[in-house]
Design goal:
144 residues; two-stranded antiparallel ribbon; elongated
Length: 144
């Protein structure tokens, strides 16, 4: 017989998706920048009152060391019994059931579509932002 895993069901919903900020550079009008462009992603989770958390994601397209496109989005999630699932302290986050990689994945995928709309009619319109592995992004979070 196979080993039974102790799995916990987590009830959650997206309460809000907020476009916080985006900036573009006039460099996006140049046809040659697609060959030398890099990107950077960042994320941060914040504890909110009750059963809510805010997950903020930032995406940068970088050309010659400067942001040519910057996009920030915030997602508010309601997580039933949040205090039993995610523990926030001043210095770290403890995720007891691996919910943060799922939230990062949902948020990032949603943000990719929003960015695609913003990049329409620029030289980057055919360069969708890369797909990331949320487990890699999640490495900086402690588990209980």
């Amino acid at each position: 017989m196979g080993k039974q895993e102790n799995k916990k069901t987590v009830e959650l919903s997206i309460a809000k998706c907020i476009e916080v900020k985006y900036t573009t550079s006039s460099v996006l009008k140049e046809k040659s920048i697609t060959e030398n462009i890099n990107y950077k992603t960042e994320w941060k989770a914040d504890n909110l009152e009750g059963d809510s958390i805010k997950l903020s994601l930032r995406f940068h397209y970088i050309y010659k060391g400067e942001d040519v496109f910057f996009y920030e989005c915030a997602f508010i999630y309601n997580i039933k019994n949040k205090a039993e699932i995610i523990l926030f302290s001043d210095t770290d986050i403890k995720d007891r059931v691996d919910i943060l990689p799922i939230l990062i994945s949902i948020s990032y995928s949603t943000m990719r579509g929003m960015i695609a709309i913003r990049l329409k009619d620029t030289v980057l319109q055919d360069m969708p932002i890369p797909i990331i592995n949320p487990e890699e992004a999640f490495k900086k979070v402690d588990k209980d």
